[in-house]
Amino acid sequence: MPLPPRSRFLEAVGTIDGANRDFEAPGPYVPGTLRVLRNGRLLARDLADGYDELDPAAGTLRVRVAPDAGDVLFVFYTEA
What we know:
- The protein has no helices and 7 strands.
- The protein is mostly beta strands.
- It has one domain.
- Strand 5 and strand 6 form a beta hairpin.
- It starts with 6 loop residues before the first strand and ends with a strand.
- The model has no long low-confidence stretch (mean pLDDT 95).
């Protein structure tokens, strides 16, 4: 019997410098389960300041507005 999926809440991996928009979840995620928080604020995927899932199998994502130095970016997702 397969194990149930696990949800994860971790800091995104990538350089936060006001220019970089590409980040990684610490592992692969199930498409459509990714949620991104910037400084504690949940980003809406469909808004101009949201994010895009690039490759869930690789755990990659792109935020539409680069976080500034000192910002914190967390991801919540279901492990693939």
